[in-house]
Design a protein that fits this description.
This protein has helices spanning about 40-55, 60-65, 140-149, and strands at about 20-25, 70-80, 90-100, 105-110, 115-130. The protein is of the alpha+beta class. The radius of gyration is 16 Å and the shape is elongated.
């Protein structure tokens, strides 16, 4: 999906192409008032990142088995703007802000009916599957990320 990404952080995004993943809010995602519990948004963003990698031709199993690498979250800065509620259909996006040797900085947003609910800057680091120490992002994945920009 092509659109301009306007981050509440004032960050410029490497690409105007977002990956978008739909998520329906289920009862288990909400508190007693039917409002999405704040930590569930982190789960929604994790699912979108997983599916983003899959759309690039990679999945967690192939990264670990073939490339001997994993991605781990290094940091997340989240701003909650408006709540989502039971049965809402959300759109969770992933856009690359920056890619380094072993780290990718992403902008993730969650919207409902084109209204921004949550915005987050997420840094993930590529680590060796056995050592859990930072390693270079696999060249093929790096190339696919750059070509999608």
């Amino acid at each position: 999906m092509k659109r301009s990404v306007q981050s509440i952080y004032g960050l410029s995004v490497m690409s105007t192409i977002d990956f978008s993943f739909p998520v329906r809010v289920y009862y288990q995602d909400t508190d007693a008032g039917g409002v999405v519990y704040h930590t569930c948004y982190l789960n929604f963003m994790e699912r979108a990142r997983y599916e983003w990698l899959r759309a690039l031709g990679f999945n967690v199993n192939s990264l670990a088995a073939v490339h001997k690498t994993l991605f781990m979250v290094r940091s997340i800065e989240v701003v909650y703007l408006k709540p989502a509620a039971l049965d809402d259909l959300l759109s969770v996006t992933v856009a690359v802000i920056e890619i380094g040797r072993s780290r990718i900085t992403l902008l993730q947003e969650i919207t409902c009916n084109h209204v921004k609910l949550v915005s987050a800057t997420v840094q993930v680091v590529c680590v060796g599957a056995e050592t859990l120490k930072p390693v270079s992002i696999p060249a093929l994945l790096r190339e696919k990320i750059r070509n999608s920009a």
